[in-house]
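Appendix B, example 12.
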Amino acid sequence: MSVELLSLDNIQEIAHQYGYWAVFIGIALENTGIPIPGETITIVGGFLAGSGELGYWLVLGTAIAGAVIGDNFGYWIGRFGGWEFLVKVGSLFKISPRQLEDVKEQFSKNAARAVFFGRFVALLRIFAGPMAGIAQMPYAQFLLCNLGGATVWASIMVTLSFFVGRIVPLHQLIHWIAQFSVLALILVIGWVGVTIWLESRKPRLEGKD
């Protein structure tokens, strides 16, 4: 997919043309695990609601529904065959199965928080659903965290763009939110890396005692 197709102008054009369907399909595909700018489409939807072109509650409802349904697809894709695919991808980047097991274990320990808060983190929003399936997270727990996280995330994104979009240029608002998502990703990677490193040192420290 070309960069031009993903430009803000083209996303706005898609949202203008397809309205609520653009919001629903965009965020659903992103949460399934397909790296498209679903969050940006949702923000544009809230912006159009603020200008009166779309209805606030319908944009919010379609964003929540798209996020929940998309994550469900991602969950079942991850549960059936996701681990084998992850190992194959990892081998391309010289990531060993053992290292992937460590990441899987850390995700399992924090699965509920990852699914609930992952929508606010760049990349994790795309992979939280499939990773929950790979980690064999109980479906009932996943569904509850998924619905709660989708509702909170969509409410913040749509409401923020609905009101703030009236006084701040749309591109600036999207830039700020993207910066926050990337910062959150850096913090998550750092936290996971430190946790794995500390746990890897435990056997050595225990062996010295």
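The CA atoms of residues 59 and 209 lie 59 Å apart. The chain is about 80% helix and 0% strand.
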